[in-house]
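Problem 12. The chain below contains 293 residues. Write out its predicted structure in token notation.
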Amino acid sequence: MLMSMTGFGRGESSDDTYNFTVEVKSLNHRYNDIIIKMPKHINYMEENINKMIRKRVRRGRVEVYIDLKYINDNNVNVNVDIPLATAYKEALENMRDNLNIDEDININHIIKMPEVVKTERKKDDENKIWSCLKEALDEALNNLINMRCKEGEQIFNDITKKTMNIKNMIEEIEKRAPIVVEEYREKLEKRVGELLKNQYELDENKLANEVVFFADKSSIDEEVVRLYSHVDQLFGCLNSNESVGRKLDFLIQEMNREINTIGSKSSDIAISRLVVDFKSELEKIREQIQNVE
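Solution.
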């Protein structure tokens, strides 16, 4: 089933120590581009996160936002540099006395000084924290995929309908092509007759040669065959479980090339109108597949 490249998913997981909230947003992109924003002290998990996402999302820009809260935060050590604090206190007192400032030095002045108070987080249990994060990420990806599938189903229905319209147009063009040659013969014969004013005998061989030359020059058989082939491949892609966005884009380009050739070969008004309608419908499909994974 076709899948859209746009979607959003959210997941949350907790244990006795960690609480993870994960939000995943995907947008249109030519390749598989993953952007992860998370607390710096768990950056070592980025590779695992990337692998998990790439298994589920094959194309599109994926933005991941990870929030971590500690439920029982006993993993932080607070260290006070007493010698440094003492040095700051003495320096402040000296500055106060020299500047004749009538103010006492208190702890609030010292604690604001650089490097006096340092917090250091104890090393997390990597397996435990990954287990909690993985659960939240998995939930977020499931919700993301569900949204992408629902939108993909709508795109599938729309492209299928438009592709059937295109196939019907190809059939009309194919039926019209031999009629164009016959009409050309009749018009040519009539025109030559008018010019000769029936005073001279019409050379049937020369007339036939001219009609054959016109038929060969305006033949669109190859283009029609290729268009049918492209339509069949397009239907095949729509029903594939693979990532088909790029292939669909290529097929649309090739179909546009073939219909342009038909338009340039044919001088028939009916076929020209079909070519215009065909290109209009093809452009609508092209716009849709820009959002297909």
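Discussion. The helical segments are 46-56, 82-98, 107-111, 126-196, 204-217, 221-238, 245-265, 269-289. Students who got a different answer should revisit the alignment rule from Section 12.3.
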